[in-house]
Design goal:
heterodimer; A: D-Maltodextrin-Binding Protein, domain 2; D-Maltodextrin-Binding Protein, domain 2; 13 helices; globular; B: 285 residues; mainly alpha; MetI-like fold
Chain lengths: 345, 285
């Protein structure tokens, strides 16, 4: 009897690690970036179980996928803008078979066939969004209209920044009038010095769930992702999302299939599933980021479609800048100053 | 050959222990040493040629600063653990055997919960609108909520909370061995309470203190998730630098070198511990 049980456990173990098990999709996504309902419905429709793993920075995701080994065999990942081109160039991705993708035509013409991936051979846009300013209007008096306002003395110890090197430096660079994608060591150093002045005001860095420090009352003003601002506002109506004058940080997150995916078939199925207007609309309504799916826009709830935080106006997007790949040399300079910034007291 | 057949159990244990040390201790550490002398490579993480650049990079005053601050927080943690743990362990040996077991059991129970979860729980306590602030405000002790979360103090509180049992257990062991007749002899020979404490109790419990310090000080420098959660990703420990180098900056040689320096510091402390133990041993004779 005991032996039987042992054999049974062994069998379960074996099927668990079998590389050809078609019933599992390993999805590697940003934290809080996919409603559970979507995963459940996908499993219901296709019978494919979704193993959902999360990360909180492109760097962490990249570091795992780069290994291309068994411990990190994901079928789908969701890198941001410039990481798509980086991973494509480093041969980490599997080409997407468009004949297996339904609903590609639903996507906004402005968000496909971009420089990061001409003709979308390797990536399919999932959501796009912005990083702007969050203000708790209950605790903050007066207007906050620009990144530079964060340096105001009244915000001593009340500012939150995302725990994202590129985004934080983007803010420093834009305040000085430079591009957020600067690769000039001189400009990066100036941005570091500018940001170092902000540090005494900074209460915390957070990229897990950037709305939480505002809801917890730890921070009153600072950086936030637009979807987080929308989710946060549901709990705390006084949380406002502001488009800074110097320009918002914009990004587009896309589905990619890593080269060592075990179940690319299921990955294609999942992409098609999410491209359905109804599902895309559900995702955008639930987590507050903007869908690139034009057909979904018509299905959106009025309140979501008119929410400037999720769907900015043209004026809001003035001066907006997408993050671009800055190359490894510049990345090292950023990394050095980032460490100095965070360890400085 | 005969010993193998005669003592299968002994052989099995030896194989297990040596296999463990070889594959799970020696090999990974050698890999880390290897990585630390290689060159950073943006494409494949590591590449030849071998060099000591990573160690040279560690000499940067920035990292010295992080190391010293980390050491300071770890030292404060150790000191607080010692101040709480020493009387705690002593008192523990004064209660009846039965109750002693219960108290030790209670000390160990929190280990059954993942330390990450417990750290998040502390966050709920310390938050601006957290339990502690709400309690103090409703009692009228404070008017405005105290800012406790995301400070150096919060990091130290978290470290103390996680590491205190590691201080208490070795101390409990030495206090348990402390023979009552030695204390009585000290009294009989005319020593007062203070003199007995300084000249008898402290020297006899010193090995436990040193063991506790070792078990607290070095782990305290590596628990990177505590500053991440309670320090707001500020007040970094050496462990954070190592993690950031591996995950964010993707500079594996540098991360490996930092990790080796931390290991060497640990080895140095253990060596000092051995020396002091020998000295105490001789004194005791």
């Amino acid at each position: 009897m005991k032996k039987l049980a042992l054999a049974g456990m062994l069998a379960i173990g074996l099927t668990g690690c079998s590389s050809e098990d078609p019933q599992v999709l390993n999805l590697y996504n940003w934290s809080e970036y996919m409603p559970q309902e979507v995963l459940d419905r996908f499993t219901e429709e296709t019978g494919i179980q979704v193993v959902y793993t999360t990360y909180d920075s492109n760097e962490a995701m990249y570091a795992r996928l780069k290994l291309l080994d068994e411990s990190a065999a994901y079928d789908l990942a969701v890198p941001s803008t410039y990481y798509v081109s980086k991973m494509r160039q480093e041969d980490l991705l599997m080409p997407i078979d468009r004949s297996k993708i339904e609903g590609f035509g639903n996507l906004d013409d402005d968000l496909v066939n971009l420089d990061i991936d001409p003709d979308n051979q390797y990536s399919i846009p999932y959501l796009w969004g912005t990083t702007g300013i969050a203000v708790d209007t209950d605790d903050v008096e007066g207007e906050v209209t620009a990144w530079a306002d964060l340096w105001d003395e009244r915000f001593q110890g009340r500012v939150m920044l995302t725990n994202d090197m590129r985004e934080v430096f983007h803010v420093g660079l834009r305040v000085l009038g430079y591009s957020g994608n600067s690769t000039d060591p001189q400009e990066i150093e100036e941005a570091y010095e500018k940001l170092a002045e902000l540090m005494p005001s900074v209460r915390t860095f957070n990229s897990d769930a950037p709305r939480m420090p505002y809801l917890e009352g730890e921070a009153d003003v600072g950086m936030i992702w637009n979807g987080e601002a929308v989710m946060g506002k549901e709990t705390m109506p006084s949380l406002e999302y502001v488009y800074p004058e110097e320009g918002i940080i914009a990004w587009l997150d896309s589905f990619v299939i890593p080269k060592n995916a075990r179940n690319p078939e299921a990955a294609h199925q999942f992409i098609s599933f999410v491209l359905q207007p109804e599902i895309a609309a559900l995702i955008s309504e639930d987590i507050g980021y903007a869908t690139p799916n034009q057909a979904a826009l018509e299905l959106l709830d009025e309140s979501v479609a008119n929410d400037r935080a999720s769907y900015p106006t043209d004026a809001d997007m003035e001066n907006a800048e997408f993050q671009a790949d800055i190359g490894d040399d510049a990345l090292q300079i950023y990394a050095k100053f980032w460490e100095m910034l965070k360890s400085g007291r | 050959m005969s010993s193998v057949t005669q003592q299968p159990f002994r052989t099995a244990v030896l194989v297990l222990v040596w296999g463990w040390l070889l594959f799970l201790v020696l090999t990974p550490n050698l890999l880390v040493v290897g990585a630390s002398v290689m060159t950073r490579d943006p494409g494949s993480f590591l590449s030849l040629p071998l060099n000591l650049d990573a160690y040279r990079q560690l000499m940067n005053p920035l990292y010295l600063d992080v190391f010293l601050h980390s050491l300071y927080m770890a030292a404060m943690t150790t000191l607080i653990c010692l101040l709480i743990g020493y009387p705690f362990a002593w008192a523990l040996t004064k209660v009846g055997k039965q109750r002693q077991m219960l108290l030790i059991f209670l000390l160990i129970v929190p280990f059954w919960t993942n330390s990450l979860v417990r750290t998040y729980a502390l966050k709920l306590l310390l938050a601006t609108n957290g339990l502690l602030n709400n309690a103090l405000m409703s009692l009228g002790i404070i008017e405005e909520p105290l800012r406790m979360l995301y400070t150096e103090g919060a990091v130290i509180v978290g470290l103390v909370y996680l590491l205190l049992p590691f201080m208490i257990l070795p101390l409990y062991a030495v206090f348990d061995d402390l023979r009552e007749d030695l204390l009585r002899a000290s009294h009989d020979l005319g020593a007062g309470r203070l003199a007995t404490f300084v000249h008898v109790i402290v020297p006899l419990t010193l090995p436990g203190v040193l063991a506790g310090v070792m078990l607290v000080l070095l782990p305290a420098m590596g628990l990177f998730f505590v500053p991440d959660i309670l320090g707001g990703s500020r007040n970094l420990l050496v462990g954070n630098v190592i993690k950031n180098q591996f995950l964010d900056a993707r500079n594996w040689p540098f991360g490996a070198a930092a990790s080796i320096v931390l290991t060497l510091a640990m080895a140095f402390l253990m060596f000092a511990h051995r020396l002091s133990k020998r000295r105490i041993g001789e004194d005791g004779v």
